[in-house]
């Protein structure tokens, strides 16, 4: 039987197709490699500070959202973050992975506004995923810039219900906690959904003085703990954010009824 060139071509393509498909399947991107220092702490592993020379450029987005001018994946976590705003409920939902916001560099999704002078920032804070990592952090944060190692002052609520005021006094300096609000456990014990923790948090900048504000049981917002001193050159960045504390797994924080004023004394 004589085969013409068309028949031979079809046969050749048919034979080669499985190899082509196998090659394409083999080209799937490899899973991100997570350095050992970035792995979350467990019963058998302690997270440690990243190497001093480890940095990842921040990914910035020209995406205004609510009262904020832009968004950034600070430190570009291995899984990109996202955010949405519901004007009807005044809720910001922030999705982010990220190994931590601590030590000498950060990884988190940040919604920000450039500001100068005094600042009042406050929000109701909720972490809907009750099974999320205990050290995940919803953040109200002032930063000098958008680099992963920027100087900053932050008020954070952790997944455990712990809240605190902390600062990175200069570029690349390790963060230090200034004051914490320890949640009061109900009979269910630590981690119980009924744990008593702040319903609303705030941060105030008055000159170089930074203070933590909170409402624990629905009472008016009031300062808790001592103020700290952190200097920011104008302009600086003010906003809200979230970090799952898991390098390649996103989680969600919801911050609502955000107050952002270019004046001290307006936290409410």
Question: How would you describe this structure to a colleague?
Answer:
The strands form three sheets. The protein has an eight-stranded antiparallel β-sheet with strand order 1-2-7-17-9-10-11-12, with no helix packed on it. It is mostly beta strands and 268 residues long. The model is unreliable at 8-23 and 185-191 (pLDDT under 50). It has one helix and 18 strands. The chain has a single domain (50-261), classed as Jelly Rolls (Sandwich), CATH 2.60.120.
Largest sheet entry: 8 strands, antiparallel
CATH class: Mainly Beta
**What's the total count of β strands?**
18
Order of strands across the widest beta sheet?
1-2-7-17-9-10-11-12
CATH architectural type: Sandwich
Rg result = 23 Å
Q: Which class do the helix and strand fractions yield? A: mainly beta
According to CATH, the fold-level topology is: Jelly Rolls
Task: Give the overall form.
Answer: globular
Mean pLDDT: 89
Segments where pLDDT lies below 50 for 5+ residues? 8-23, 185-191
């Amino acid at each position: 039987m004589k085969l013409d060139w068309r028949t031979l071509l079809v046969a050749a393509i048919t034979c080669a197709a499985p190899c082509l498909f196998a090659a394409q399947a083999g080209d799937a991107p490899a899973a991100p490699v997570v350095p050992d220092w970035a792995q979350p702490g467990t019963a058998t592993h302690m997270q440690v500070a990243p190497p001093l020379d480890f940095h990842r450029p921040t990914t910035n987005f020209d995406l205004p959202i609510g009262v904020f001018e832009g968004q950034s994946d600070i430190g570009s976590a291995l899984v990109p973050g996202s955010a949405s705003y519901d004007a009807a409920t005044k809720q910001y939902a922030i999705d982010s992975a990220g190994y931590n916001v601590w030590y000498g560099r950060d990884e988190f999704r940040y919604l920000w506004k450039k500001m100068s002078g005094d600042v009042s920032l406050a929000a109701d804070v909720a972490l809907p995923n009750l099974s999320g990592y205990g050290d995940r952090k919803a953040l109200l944060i002032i930063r000098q810039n958008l680099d992963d190692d920027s100087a900053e002052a932050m008020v954070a609520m952790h997944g455990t219900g712990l809240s605190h005021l902390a600062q990175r006094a200069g570029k690349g300096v390790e963060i230090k906690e200034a004051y914490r609000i320890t949640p009061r456990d109900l009979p269910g014990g630590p981690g119980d959904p009924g744990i008593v923790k702040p319903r609303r948090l705030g941060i105030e900048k008055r000159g170089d003085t930074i203070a933590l504000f909170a409402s624990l049981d629905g009472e008016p917002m009031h300062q808790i703990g001592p103020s700290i001193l952190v200097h920011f050159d104008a302009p600086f960045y003010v906003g809200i954010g979230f970090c799952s504390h898991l390098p390649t797994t996103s989680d969600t924080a919801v911050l609502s009824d955000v107050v952002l004023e270019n004046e001290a004394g307006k936290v409410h």
